[in-house]
Design goal:
By secondary structure, this protein is of the alpha+beta class. About 40% of the residues lie in helices and about 30% in strands. The strands form 2 sheets. The chain has a 4-stranded mixed β-sheet, with helices on one face. The longest helix has 27 residues. The model has no long low-confidence stretch (mean pLDDT about 80).
Length: about 150
């Protein structure tokens, strides 16, 4: 979250400076650029709300990962083969990995036994692993590991 505050501060600074500089040249263009910057500030705000209000949920049957809109993906414990701590290692990339972090480096990789369909607005993608960032890794890893068997 602190990174979002920095982005918001930079966007506000850019809004003020660009509006002041461009308004000396063209007032309508200055207002257009200010409107674009204001929309980006709203997007930053929604990104922050999305990160806070849509956390991972550890249920009795698996890990619920919220997606876009009301839908989400449930990773059952039977389908999770292992959980790896990847805080300081290179981030896994590829078509089979779902990076579930917006701005931060993931600290866990959930490897799946069989691919799971992840539906987006445009397409359906088969995922084989999910990289996530959790706030309390000391409690998350043992809780998942104990349920894996």
């Amino acid at each position: 979250m602190p990174l979002l505050y920095i982005f918001a501060f930079l966007a506000i600074s850019e809004l003020l400076v660009v509006h002041w500089l461009v308004s000396a040249w063209s007032v309508p263009i200055a207002f257009a650029l200010s409107a674009i910057t204001a929309l980006s500030l709203v997007a930053i705000g929604y990104l922050g709300m999305w990160a806070v209000l849509r956390p991972l949920v550890l249920t009795g049957e698996g890990i619920f990962i919220p997606g876009a809109g009301p839908a989400g993906t449930l990773l059952t414990f039977e389908n999770i083969s292992e959980i790896r701590h990847i805080a300081f290692s290179p981030e896994p990339k590829g078509k089979g990995n779902w990076r579930r972090t917006a701005l931060a480096h993931p600290n866990f990789l959930l490897c799946l036994r069989s691919p799971v369909a992840r539906r987006t607005l445009v397409r359906t993608r088969m995922i084989e692993s999910v990289s996530v960032r959790v706030d309390d890794p000391a409690r998350f890893a043992p809780a998942v590991q104990s349920r894996l068997g």
